[in-house]
Specification:
The structure holds two protein chains of two kinds. By secondary structure, chain A is of the alpha/beta class. Chain A has eleven helices and eight strands. In chain A, helix 7 links the parallel strand 4 and strand 5. In chain A, helix 4 runs parallel beside helix 5 and helix 4 crosses helix 10. By secondary structure, chain B is mainly beta. Chain B has one domain: Ubiquitin-like (UB roll). In chain B, a hairpin with a 2-residue loop joins strand 1 and strand 2. The longest helix of chain B is centred in the middle third of the chain and has 7 residues. The radius of gyration of chain B is 14 Å and the shape is globular. The model of chain B has no long low-confidence stretch (mean pLDDT about 90). Classes of the chains: A alpha/beta, B mainly beta. The interface between A and B is medium-sized, with 48 and 22 residues. Chain A: InterPro entries: ThiF/MoeB/HesA, ThiF_NAD_FAD-bd, Ubiquitin-activating_enz. Chain A: Catalyzes the adenylation by ATP of the carboxyl group of the C-terminal glycine of sulfur carrier protein MoaD. Chain A: This is Molybdopterin-synthase adenylyltransferase.
């Protein structure tokens, strides 16, 4: 409460009615809703995962939503990327998503980054936000974002899709667990990308449209948790979903001293 | 209960499916399945806990273990 004047954010009567089902929750309440309004969240990709992610974050009243995507809406996106509609085909995805968000919740400030994430721009992009959610469609972006969020000390919620399988985790490797061990990085799970061409993209392999719907919604839940702070985040936990047999498995993973970001060698090099 | 279940027929679960246990370590298990021994793009969990790759050579497999092979995915 040190800086109430510069941080003065309040909820209008309209917002109090809109967010009534959040505000009545003991774990969110008015203070939690104000945290959501003050929050700046960056979504990497406005595709299969980004669509439901952005819709639920917008509906939840995130104050500022950044969207990074350099693509335009195509007809074959619409089977799963439900933030875009048929009239949006040919439109930049950031613009189509921004228009949908404005219809859903005019209280959300949307920042469109119509560009590709690269090693050169990624740190500046994530630095401007409080929480990052990665729903991108390629390994190069995923590693660039995960590394940048480590260096910029930003919580990262990241999900990825196979054809019928998917996974979700939350990364806070710039912090330590209760026993003093650093939290794991993405590279503690997968130290380096698989050889090029060995893992197909959604474009090549296909994807059941409802699966990103589930995973993108779970991403939104993790982002909201990171902002409001209830329950237990998926830090050091990987949720694996196998949609063929509806198998949900929670795996735990820890800091790997061999990882290149905050492993023993990196920490001693300081 | 005559000749059933000899000691050799130990079983494990691999990504939710029942299998015969034929390897004694994670490394041997991956090599039998033709997976990249360097493990690029793969994580392996034994009984719910991801095993760091530095331990793959030594991490034993035993009857009843639950193994998950996690493939890195890029789709979004």
């Amino acid at each position: 409460m040190t800086n109430e004047t510069t941080n003065a954010v309040s909820l209008s009567a309209d917002e109090i009615e809109r967010y009534a089902r959040h505000i009545v929750l003991r774990d969110v309440g008015g203070p939690g809703q104000l945290k959501l309004k003050r929050a700046r969240v960056l979504a990497i990709g406005a595709g299969g995962l980004g669509a439901p992610l952005l819709q639920y974050l917008a509906a939840a009243g995130i104050g500022t939503l950044g969207i990074v995507d350099d693509d335009v809406v195509s007809l074959s996106n619409l089977q799963r990327q439900i933030i875009h509609g048929t009239p949006d085909v040919g439109t930049p995805k950031v613009d189509s998503a921004a228009a949908a968000i404005a219809r859903l919740n005019p209280h959300v400030n949307v920042i469109c980054h119509r560009e590709r994430v690269t090693a050169d721009n990624v740190r500046a992009l994530v630095a401007g936000y409080d929480v990052v959610a990665d729903g991108s469609d390629n390994f190069a972006t995923r590693y660039a974002v995960a590394d940048a969020c480590f260096y910029e000390r930003k919580p990262l919620v990241t999900a990825a899709l196979g054809t019928f399988d998917a996974s979700l985790t939350t990364l806070r490797p710039f912090e330590r667990g209760p026993d003093g061990t650093p939290n794991p990085t993405y590279r503690c799970l997968f130290p380096s990308p698989p050889p090029p061409g060995t893992v197909p993209t959604c474009e090549e392999a296909g994807i059941l449209g409802a699966l990103p719907g589930v995973m993108g919604s779970l991403m939104a839940l993790e982002v909201i948790r990171a902002i409001v702070g209830f329950g237990e985040p998926l830090v050091g936990k990987l949720l694996m979903v196998d949609a063929r047999s509806m198998r949900f498995e929670m795996l735990t993973y820890g800091w790997d001293p061999d990882n290149p970001l905050n492993g023993t060698a990196a920490l001693t090099a300081g | 209960m005559s000749m059933e279940a000899p000691a050799a027929a130990a079983r494990i679960r691999v990504n939710g499916a029942d299998e015969l246990l034929t390897a004694s370590t994670i490394a041997e298990f991956l090599s039998q399945r033709g997976l990249d021994p360097a493990g690029r793009g793969i994580a392996v969990a034994r009984n719910g806990q991801v095993v760091p790759r530095a331990r793959w050579q030594d991490e034993p497999l035993g009857a009843g273990d639950r193994i998950e092979i996690v493939h890195a995915r890029q789709g979004g």
